[in-house]
Amino acid sequence: MYRYRCERCGTTSPSVRSRDLAHTERARHRDAAHSGHIPDGEKITYDGDQISSTDTRRVVILIAVVLAAIWLYDKLT
Ligand SMILES: [Zn+2]
């Protein structure tokens, strides 16, 4: 996940999935807060791919379904 950080304003954008989206956040911030100028100390950071809670929930449901299928198969055979 990528984030845009403006040190001058002391703000950080929400995490976005691509560097291009972080560049969009940067352009939006430059226009809104700095009249299109480039502030000192801005940067785009990458903190790895984070698993969302929705992804975690899907994995837990999938594991539960597989375990239930194994349990059911074991009961029927
Ligand atoms: Zn700023």
Taking all Cα atoms into account, the compactness measure Rg is 22 Å
SSE ordering: EEHEH
Mean pLDDT: 92
Distance between the termini: 47 Å
Strand content: 15-25%
The low-pLDDT segments are none
Class by SSE composition: alpha+beta
Bin the helical content: 40-55%
Bound molecules: zinc ion
Tell me which oligomeric state these chains represent.
Answer: single chain
Spatially, the strands of the biggest sheet line up as 2-1-3
Shape: rod-shaped
- Main sheet? 3 strands, antiparallel
The count of domains is 2
Can you describe this structure?
With 77 residues, the protein is an alpha+beta fold. The chain folds into 2 domains: 1-46; 51-77. It is 52% helix and 16% strand. The chain contains 2 helices and 3 strands, in the order ββαβα. It has helices at residues 19-34, 53-76, and strands at 2-6, 11-12, 42-46. It has a 3-stranded antiparallel β-sheet with strand order 2-1-3, with helices on one face. Strand 1 and strand 2 (11-12) form a beta hairpin. The longest helix has 24 residues, at 53-76. The model has no long low-confidence stretch (mean pLDDT 92). Residues 6, 8-9, 29, 33-34, 39 line the site of zinc ion.
Short description:
The chain is an alpha+beta fold and 77 residues long.
Question: Which descriptors would you attach to this protein?
Answer:
77 residues; alpha+beta; 2 domains; three-stranded antiparallel beta sheet; 16% strand
